[in-house]
Design brief:
46% of the residues lie in helices and 16% in strands. It has 19 helices and 14 strands. It has helices at residues 2-33, 38-46, 48-59, 83-93, 127-138, 157-165, 180-183, 190-201, 212-222, 236-241, 251-257, 276-285, 300-304, 320-327, 341-344, 349-356, 381-394, 398-409, 413-425; strands at residues 66-70, 96-101, 112-116, 119-122, 144-149, 169-174, 206-209, 227-229, 263-270, 289-296, 312-314, 332-335, 361-364, 375-378. It is an enzyme of class 2 (transferase). Pfam families: Glyco_trans_1_4 (PF13692).
Amino acid sequence: MKDKISKLKNLVKKYGLKGTLKKAFGYIYSNYLVRLSLREWIVLHLHKKTFAAGIERILARDTYDRIVIWRSSFGWNVPLYQRPQHIFTNFAKQRTLVFYEVTRFTDDVKRMKKQADNLYLVNFANTPFSDLLMRQIADKDVPKYVQFYSTDWTMPAKKIKEYKKQGYKIVYEYIDDLNPHLAGTDELPVNVKEKYEMAMNDPEIFVVVTAGALERDVLEKRGDHRLVYSSNGVDYAHFHDEVDEEFALDEEFRKIIDSGKPVIGYYGALAKWFDYDLIKEINAEGKYQVVLLGIKYDDSFERAGIDKCRNVHFCGSRDYHVLQNYASKIDILTIPFLINDITKATSPVKLFEYMALNKPIVTTDMDECRKYESVLIGHDHKEFIEQLDRAMELRDDPGYCALLDKEALENTWAEKAKSILDELKKYE
């Protein structure tokens, strides 16, 4: 309860009372009212045989070697199309049957919906249906896994123990520094802390890490047994081959692009780990227009006063399916993050998407960015701005563009998914 109150307080700061009440109702509906739906209990009771037959048809196919159940409250149709959607899309393509948890808050899925071959979206809050699904999965003689995010704060550790007793192997995706700022709470949620401690102390749990700092933490606590490094990656075709040069950009963005000044850009969350002072210095230089695409994750944007910068433009988020068309018009793509525990343990998805766009990349001195030859690093504000000038010179350099392309192709989501599955296969 303490975690929920803390989360609520931070939501009020971020969205105001009206916006928070709207989100709170959606959360309560998707996580609690659905469970209590008398109508759904009746529907399941009356049509149980029909639903069971539909599940059995899926399970009877010979298109998979294992079953993975994704249990984290990360909807499919969310504004930031991120790691879970990519990893499990590629699991499904690599002979893995995936049942992916969604909520009614983000997805119109009452019970289960086919998203792709071997990939099904499931509303696990619909207890009558999910219980039926789990009973039928239990009868299948194939390796079974439950996979979840380290940052998931809804599912308790005791639920993971129940899955283990039922014969499921556990996959713990250690994706970020476990920090209250990321959870949007004052203290680290109990469920996050307990699942982390379980993963660090149970050698039978598979641990997937996305960054070197996280890998070092695991090695120190439990060694390299059942450990796999799988950083974030890119849907190369989406960002390289699916750019529509004729796409109708919105008027606000088009005016910025046509301003006559070179444009540098960033897309993603604007939060406490974003270096607003660096953006102010770039603004003061007057050489570049700065475009920020994304969401305000907290109140740091307003507190920083960036809206007063003449050459800085916050344009809101863009849908993932058209994002590449906007990013492709920007001259230089950047990741201007502060260096702290959060960003040291971050593998930015956007980094690899920038590579696939073949755009010059300038970042601050983040551990996971420093690994790639194509990335220009600014160790301080002065050097970051100097690297912007260098990036402008490299925009059309054939050798540099080839390097970007090479590193993008080495970091596709297909490869990231394969590295995880290869580790699971060792024990099947």
